[in-house]
Amino acid sequence: MAVDLQSSSAFAIAQRRFDAAADVLGLSDNTRRLLREVKRELTVHFPVHHDDGSVRLYTGYRVQHNINRGPAKGGIRYSPDVTLDLVKALAMLMTWKCSVVGIPYGGAKGGVIVDPAALSNHELEHLTRRYATEIALLIGPEKDIPAPDLGTTPQVMAWIMDTVSMHAGHSVTASVTGKPTDVGGSEGRQEAAGRGVTYLTLEALKYLHVGEETPTVAVQGFGQVGSSTARLLREAGLRVVAVSDSRGGVHNPKGLDLAALEEHRKFRGCVSGFKKADDIAGAELLELPVTVLVPAATEQQITERNADRVRARLITEAANAAISPDADSILHERGVFLVPDILANAGGVVVSYFEWVQDLQAFFWEEEEINTKLHHVITRAFYEVLHASVNKRIDMRIAAYVLAVQRVANATTVRGIYP
Ligand code: NAD
């Protein structure tokens, strides 16, 4: 489900969260004005030849929110729900995400209004190459490095890298991340976001001194992030009792057999109807009495309408903007501990950063080394956010924003942009 643009736009929500952090920091009006806007927004319209001989016009975007700490970084989304407003919001989120985990990037996002499932492979490749050509003036290893997001894949990244390389006359592997390993992709990138969610969930449980012998978990969304999170948390000894996708959920209080469920999903195309569990409605999953809830689907899933019915002790917000600002306050008052999105799902961009570094130095690391480095970066960020939260008596979301915004503001000041 897309963000409800009627009540408040995605970008307005992103600015509202920024304003809360700017208030805590007492940011100057000049810095505040600069950071609450995006730096560049490009809209492109381009034709694509379809297999039936028709030519259709598509619209895409690339937005850079801020580049004061380094080149812009952010995914490309293919979805009918893409709007410029949403892309601006997600670009801003990327600035804070890169900053909170301390990697030297600014924030960007891109998108094309298209349902990729409705295109043939040939049409998808043609669309991708045209879009990449249109945004080529903005992207590149030193300027802006795209990655996959909803609706885009390692194959799409390989086509973008090839298009940029054809224009340059040589292979520019560092121009995108999330590529297949055959063309400079990194080991561990596919499940990096889920691995980061897992490390942070385990760290938060340690901090909370959760007494249960086997903490229980519900995961909303069984895609790339949700399914790897479920599997890795299960491997860490937690009991995954419920998962869902866009068609509904399944629940077994004794724990789900995830390998069998994966087989079932491949066969049926969804998790519902799994015979070793009960079917539940998607909304019901969010209200189960579990230790950990992981929303790993899409935006605005926990709002003021259902936040008071959430019974989890901990929420690791794997999906971007899964929780609305009003729900934040309700959950905080009810004592639900939150690992907010810009920290929770940063594992993806951290390993993207490792991929870019490996491409630039043309020297590749083993997966074990990548996972160890990811653990170090993400755990350090968790404790920095936690300390800010405890010391300043602010919730984890605002604490993450305060740290992230402070670093970008410092870079802005020290560069003399707004002294
Ligand atoms: P995906 O497309 O692989 O999976 C999304 C899953 O959510 C699917 O199972 C889909 O059926 C399900 N879903 C959609 N709407 C739902 C609903 N209303 N209720 C329940 N399930 C629903 O996407 P993904 O890559 O796993 O990304 C999930 C979220 O994580 C997105 O917000 C994305 O921006 C964010 N994220 C992903 C990465 C990454 O590396 N993949 C990195 C950072 C953040």
Properties at a glance:
disordered N terminus; 419 residues; alpha/beta; 12 strands; 44% helix; five-stranded mixed β-sheet; binds nicotinamide-adenine-dinucleotide; globular; seven-stranded mixed β-sheet
Topology:
Blueprint: H1 10-25, H2 29-35, E1 40-49, E2 55-66, E3 72-79, H3 84-100, E4 106-113, H4 121-134, E5 144-148, H5 154-168, H6 192-208, E6 216-220, H7 224-235, E7 239-245, E8 248-251, H8 258-268, E9 278-280, H9 282-285, E10 292-295, E11 314-316, H10 325-333, E12 337-339, H11 341-344, H12 347-361, H13 367-392, H14 396-414
Parallel strand pairs: 3-4, 3-5, 6-7, 6-10, 10-11, 11-12
Antiparallel strand pairs: 1-2, 2-4, 7-8, 8-9
The structure holds nicotinamide-adenine-dinucleotide.
